Amino acid sequence: MKTAAAGASPRALASPLMAPLIPVAKPKLPVASAILPYLKEIDANHWYTNHGLLWLRFQGLLAEHWGVESNNVALVANATIGLTLALRASGVRPGGLCLLPSWTFVASPAAAIAAGLRVRFIDVDPATWMPDPAAVAARDDLDEIAAIMIVSPFGMPFDVRPWDELSERTGIPVVIDAAAAFDTMRAGGPLAIARSPMVVSLHATKVFGIGEGGAVVCRDGEWLERFRRLTTFGFLGSRVSTAPGINAKVSEYGAAIGLAAFDGWTAARARFAALTERYRRRLGERGAVGLQPRFGEGWVTSTMNIVWPSDCQDGAARLAAEGIATLAWWGQGCHRQPAYADCLRDPLPATEDLAQRTVGLPFWLDMTPTQVDAVCDAVHRACGAEARGDAASRPRAAAPAGMPVRAQIARAVAAARSERR
Ligand SMILES: Cc1ncc(COP(=O)(O)O)c(C=O)c1O
Hints:
Blueprint: H1 4-7, H2 10-13, H3 32-45, H4 53-66, E1 73-76, H5 79-89, E2 97-101, H6 107-114, E3 118-122, H7 133-137, E4 145-151, H8 161-170, E5 174-177, E6 198-201, E7 214-217, H9 221-231, H10 252-263, H11 265-284, E8 290-291, E9 304-307, H12 315-321, E10 344-345, H13 349-357, E11 358-361, H14 369-388, H15 405-420
Parallel strand pairs: 2-3, 2-4, 3-10, 4-5, 5-6
Antiparallel strand pairs: 1-7, 6-7, 8-9, 9-11
The structure holds pyridoxal-5'-phosphate.
């Protein structure tokens, strides 16, 4: 059945009525003038892709940022392909099972399947939003497991040692989806570089973006050489294809944006850190909502997730009625996505609970303190009203089926206004 949203024309979706007063994200990459000097270098070099000079410099800066040698980092077209090729470079057995949390973005299971694996979703520890390494180590089906993919939730730091140990003890390759951990993994930062490969996304929505791009960090030079080969048709230093690789290179233009992004990184990080601190302080004041674990503990990311208390069922709708956009970045968990509904899975009670109650609040580089305060006040109102059971928390009449999206929004806004009077 066609939903009202699916039936809305792009024009309707672009209507001012649809535009929230405070969007949930507003990515900001280096501006044209900051990239221009690097573009001029490309013009002068006549070298546009295939491991050019800017590519080499950008890779070197990433390595320095993460505190590893330049040959421990490999650029890749995006993190999804990076994860896929990382699994392949780890020699996973096609058709084997890959354990991974359902509490992640769909790119993680997509990469496992693209690497020829079958997915088995596992649950997370509600305290860390990650699978518990001791519980995974104690599984009685490890003989059947071809790979394990671990996800740093939204860039959160975690102890990599138990995963490295598990991999070494069992021989099962572990690949770390560190898509949002660009800052957390910095030299001296709270997420140490593991022995297992770590894959970072440089997508525009990430804290450090180049549009589309990714990077893989691994201390094992031989592994990284296998990985590099897979990103470039199986070639490495010659035109002899020694592995069925694909084209997953980053061009000089991507590298140019990366170099410009490094020029502005210190200032950008300071702004992200200030936003993080303000949210932490303002939302912590009343303690009504939970924050993502370890949020604000010496790392920055591009998202800000809260967990509603269980008695606050419609917090996101209340914020929407105030013109504040939110987004459930990981939806209801990957196992609820039609593409992955048939995957094997353990019982997932913690994932189900987190997925129901977690939502991303507005968070972007140029957000003002006033905007952060407005969001925090609205969050407090949403929880407080629920607890009092006042008029705002009474169930609203459902919108008639098939009502156009624009009309539904107008109705929601009007209802919220009249309730506030
Ligand atoms: C947890 C996670 N893994 C993988 C990816 C995929 O990254 P990319 O868009 O660079 O392919 C994302 C992107 O948001 C992500 O959040």
